[in-house]
Amino acid sequence: MNADDQDWTAGEGAQLKALRVEKAPSEALEDSVINEIARRGLVARARPATWARTLAALTAAAALFGGGLLLGSRSGRAAGAPDLPRYLLLLEGVDTSTVEEEAQRVAEYRAWAHREARAGRLVSGEKLEPQALTLGAERPQAAGGEAVRGFFIIVAKSDAEALSIAGGCPQLRHGGRIVVRKIAPT
Amino acid sequence: VKGSNGDPELAASFLARRDEAAFRALYRKHTPALLGLATRLASGRAAEAEEIVQEAWVRAAERLEAFRWRSSLRTWLSGFVVNVWRERSRSALRETASAAAVEPGDSAPFASVERIDLERAVAGLPNGFRAAVVLHDVEGFTHEEIAELLGIDPGTSRSQLARARRNLRASLSSNDAAMRRTS
Predict the structure, then answer these.
(1) Confidence check on the interface: ipTM exceeds 0.85, yes or no
(2) Contacts 24+ apart (CB under 8 A), A126-135
(3) Which of A64, A65, B164, B177 is positioned for an S-S bond with B129, CB 3.0–4.6 A?
(4) Can you give the pTM of this predicted structure?
């Protein structure tokens, strides 16, 4: 018997071809692969010295912003943009009243942060405790600092781009405010 | 590059600076297909499939510099998946040899078989036969590509596929017969 004797009918062949699938890998697999090839010196990790610090920051931010950051850049600066100006986004004043609202908020921040991190524009983020500790002279509206609930650090080519990135943050949709401050080069 | 699928540029970027972002881009582009292949070869065992894909990527990262683009990157990467899987399945050849000794006589078409039954039958094939069917009939590789992937002669690939198909038909026919007996 030769190979031709065992050809499939068209229907059989189509059924077998239909078994071809693509499977989404687990998130852990990508990290595992990158870590392994980095260990072998096959890939250059940007700023490895800042790894632990940034990971800690991202983990803290995950409490507020849902963990999406962990999937993105873990370098001290966003990947692929080491020389761009950095901007601080101060997130002010959004309160949630229900658990459901909080869950919805977390999902929205996660999606935004994940997208920005993957695009190489997000460096880090943190949640801040509500109580501010102050030093120095009293000034009017000193309590205003307590309105800051968290921050992100991003990279952008210009003020306009920084505003554009910040404009996509869910903070604004929920009636909050974002103060954008350019970080002075050192 | 006009007509490029982007792989050569990403690979060049990775190799020039060992650029992590370029590697991640290649990884994200090709891993779903590689994982699908590995899962099929590993008879649906998801954890094993991920281990295979991880090892395949590590080897690919080590050897990408030597890749000459005579095949597509996807095909080249698939070769690592197949070979890692083969190394892990040490009994593959012995299993195929013993299965081949029992030549099935029933070769009725299975045109109306359910997908789940077909998946089970493919998963239940001896390793060597499963590789032949998965690579040629499911993934669509040519005998020449399979020969390159496995380091065998194209004629060997053809004859292996013919035997694998006989085995698959027999498996499906016996399932069918068992169903008839129980109904």
Answers:
(1) no
(2) A126/A57, A126/A60, A126/A61, A126/A150, A126/A151, A127/A60, A127/A61, A127/A63, A127/A64, A127/A65
(3) B164
(4) 0.58
